[in-house]
Amino acid sequence: MEILILLVIAAICGAIGQSLAGYTAGGCIISTIVGLMGAYIGTAIARNLQLPEILPISIGGNPFPIVWAIIGSAVLSAILGLLSRTFGGRRRL
């Protein structure tokens, strides 16, 4: 049950991060993956800058940083958006 709650929270954080960045790579499963990866990226950024955890939610005794997950998801989505525009090219009609 804890993993299901974690995945739902990660999907919400990923969707918020993608909407902030203005780039959506896919549906709910992609939002969940972006949310989980965003939590890792956001936490790494916070640790390197020595920033505190903001609004962590404890799931199964493990903290899940909501704010850093959203920030990390936005950063990851922005990078994916830039890469897709760079390597995807523009379609001509």
Structure write-up:
- By secondary structure, the protein is mainly alpha-helical.
- It has one domain.
- It contains 3 helices and 2 strands.
- A hairpin with a 2-residue loop joins strand 1 (56-59) and strand 2.
- The model has no long low-confidence stretch (mean pLDDT 83).
Compute the CA-based radius of gyration.
14 Å
Order of helices and strands: HHEEH
| Gap from first CA to last CA | 49 Å
Which blocks of ≥5 consecutive residues have pLDDT under 50? none
Average pLDDT works out at 83
Total number of distinct structural domains: 1
Beta-sheet strand percentage?
A: 5-15%
Number of discrete helical segments: 3
| Estimated helix fraction | 55-70%
Shape: flat
Count of DSSP E strands? 2
Structural class: mainly alpha
Task: Write a short abstract of this structure.
The chain is mainly α and 93 residues long. It has helices at 2-21, 28-48, 66-88, and strands at 56-59, 62-65.
Furnish the topology, listing elements before pairings.
Layout: H1 2-21, H2 28-48, E1 56-59, E2 62-65, H3 66-88
Antiparallel strand pairs: 1-2
Keywords:
mainly alpha, 93 residues, two-stranded antiparallel ribbon, flat, 3 helices
